[in-house]
Amino acid sequence: MLLDSVAYTIPHMLLNTTTKDAREGVYIGIDVFFGRAIHWNAKLSPRHHILVVGPTGSGKTITLTAIASRLSNLFNVTLTVFDIKGEYASLLKLFTSDATVIWDVSQIPIPICSCNEADEDTAYNVNLFINTLNSLYKLPTYVRDQIREQLIKLCKYCYTTSLDDALRNYWIEETESIHTTLSAFSAGYTPSLPLHLLNQKNVVVDLSKLFLLDPKATATVVLYILKRIMRTLQNLNLGYITKVVLLDELWYIAQSAVEDFTNILIRYGRGYGVVLAMATQSIDDLNPYADTITENCGAVIALSSPSRGYWIRLSRYLNLSKKGIENALKLVGQGMAVARLYPYEKPFYIYIDPLT
Ligand SMILES: Nc1ncnc2c1ncn2[C@@H]1O[C@H](COP(=O)(O)OP(=O)(O)OP(=O)(O)O)[C@@H](O)[C@H]1O
Ligand SMILES: [Mg+2]
Question: Domains plus CATH for the chain?
Fold first, then answer.
């Protein structure tokens, strides 16, 4: 019997007591040993982000959805979901009654500037776009300068165009990937979905069609939107927890721009009150920044796997002892997990409760 064996072999679990403060946090699930509710107090945690790791089908998406929607309800803040499989629009309905806007970026491209915005905002947003593009495609300086000049001109005169059309002549080496990326962006006026909507409503950014065409284009879109969200929050200066962002299947961003992504995570997270709730299959997807990323997470949740190597690899991030690894191996089934939740040093063995 799992519970008995856990009780017998890991008496240190008895030291994990849930304080009143912890009960005030976000509900995560049930302690499989004690049968009590486990909460994580994001407010007390110096590091806000959440990392979920788990093999395919282990429950990452459900875990992220449950925790992210509970956090956004608890702090009364908006939720932005980057959805590369097109699964969140229906899933979110089960977890939140708040209206959700679906933004399909293959239908409505991301505006990098809008008419009537101040020149300094245009310059900032254009630079943000070029820097993001550069972190994925490594552009020579003169190309960056040329496209900056062109984009500022387009924005200033409020010329509405796809960036793929506007920047056709600027590439020395044209690739399908760069065309796909640029076609997801536009200059000028996009009346239906301005970016600031992301700070007013729950939005699912549907990247599923773009992802089928090109994961790198999708990573560019996610990074750019994340940076724009941060910029708006910086201007609003709201303090504390201001937004929850859900980022499933992190590997494709890590693969093409892990450094840029890690910088966003570290620099913006705490100060801007953004909680990034992320999931990926393997901790090694995040190399060489796995340590830095986990250090910036107040909650690290590893869903069950029968692989010993998986738990050994994760043991340093979860503070799992040898006995702990043996017990983790006994967890079977979707939603069963080992979680390190700040401020507790010792890991919890939990069932992620998708309900409530
Ligand atoms: N906490 C849970 N309790 C009960 N069932 C769950 C739980 N989490 C997930 N499941 C079940 O497992 C299925 C797969 O879960 P989910 O899609 O979250 O896995 P995943 O790790 O995201 O998979 P993938 O790697 O394919 O994206 C769900 O459809 C649901 O039926
Ligand atoms: Mg999933």
Answer: 2-96+202-219+237-352 (3.40.50.300), 116-187 (no CATH)
Residue 229 Cα to ligand 2 midpoint, Å, equals: 24
What percentage of the chain reaches a pLDDT higher than 70? 88
Residues in the chain: 356
Paired strand residues for 83: 206
> Measured in angstroms, how far is the CA atom of residue 58 from the centroid of ligand 2?
8
Question: Phi and psi (nearest 5°) for 234?
Answer: -60, -40
What is the number of the ligand closest to the CA of 30? 1
- Whether 170 and 143 have beta carbons less than 8 Å apart is answered as yes
Q: 196 vs 23, 29, 158, 167, 200, CA distance in Å? A: 33, 33, 18, 25, 7
Lowest mean pLDDT among 9-13, 218-222, 326-330: 9-13
Q: In angstroms, what is the span from residue 246 Cα to ligand 2's centroid?
A: 12
Nearest CA to ligand 1 atom 3: 335
Amino acid identity at 217: A
Q: Which of 6, 78, 24 is nearest to 238 (CA)?
A: 78
Cα 251 versus chain centre, distance: 11
Nearest-CA residue for atom 9 of ligand 1? 59
Pocket of ligand 1 (CB under 6 A): 54, 56-62, 334-335, 352, 354
Closest CA to 246 of 75, 16, 49, 41: 49
- Whether the CB-CB separation of 223 and 203 falls below 8 Å is answered with no
**Whose atoms come closest to the Cα of 53: which ligand?**
1
Distance between CA atoms of residues 182 and 217, nearest Å = 8
Residue 87 CA to ligand 2 centre (angstroms): 9
pLDDT digits (tens, 9 = 90+) for 283-336: 999 999 999 999 999 999 999 999 999 999 999 999 999 999 999 999 999 999
